[in-house]
Write a structure and sequence with these properties.
Elements (H helix, E strand, L loop, with lengths): L2 E6 L11 H4 L4 H15 L2 E6 L3 H14 L2 E5 L8 H10 L3 E5 L21 E4 L4 H10 L4
Helix pairs in contact: 2-5, 3-4
The structure holds 1,3,4-trihydroxy-5-OXO-cyclohexanecarboxylic acid (DQA).
């Protein structure tokens, strides 16, 4: 069975209470449950992680090289700053989808630049929690 890692970065554990006008009221647990159901329907094994630490995220991406066939990554604010995540995605040699709940291009200018966009297959942004479902559909044929 093909396996996908969904990796969520800093502050995403606060979903539900964090700026709900931007990120919605859905919690990370709700998203996890919806993704588990969707993955089951697609016949994909799912690992679901969240970390507030860049190094931990890099470790998980390195492990994905042998443990998973693809990655869906919401890197949070590290999207806009982390050359280390950019390099880890290359080193992983697995298809990776960049995901954002909000439309980062309709927000502050510092969110318009992504350090990881050049090394991912594609980007999904602006569809709220449903973006995770869209990303699972998108990654499924790439595994
Ligand atoms: C985010 C967008 C980022 O700019 C922000 O720092 C986040 C969440 C999103 O899902 O919309 O933490 O990745």
């Amino acid at each position: 069975m093909k396996s996908v890692l969904i990796l969520n970065g800093p502050n995403l554990n606060m979903l539900g209470t964090r700026q709900p006008e931007i990120y919605g009221s859905t919690t990370m647990e709700d998203i996890h449950a919806a993704c588990a159901a969707k993955a089951k329907a697609l016949n994909i094994a799912l690992a679901f992680e969240q970390s507030n630490h860049e190094g931990r995220m890099i470790d998980l991406l390195h492990a994905a090289r042998t443990e998973h066939h693809g990655v869906i990554l919401n890197a949070g604010a590290y999207t806009h700053t982390s050359i280390a995540l950019h390099d880890a995605i290359i080193a992983m040699e697995r298809p990776c989808i960049e995901l954002h709940l909000s439309n980062v291009h309709a927000r502050e200018e510092f969110r318009h630049r992504s350090m990881i966009a050049p090394v991912v297959v594609g980007v999904i942004a602006g569809f709220g929690a449903n973006g995770y479902q869209l990303a699972l559909d998108a990654i499924s044929p790439l595994l």
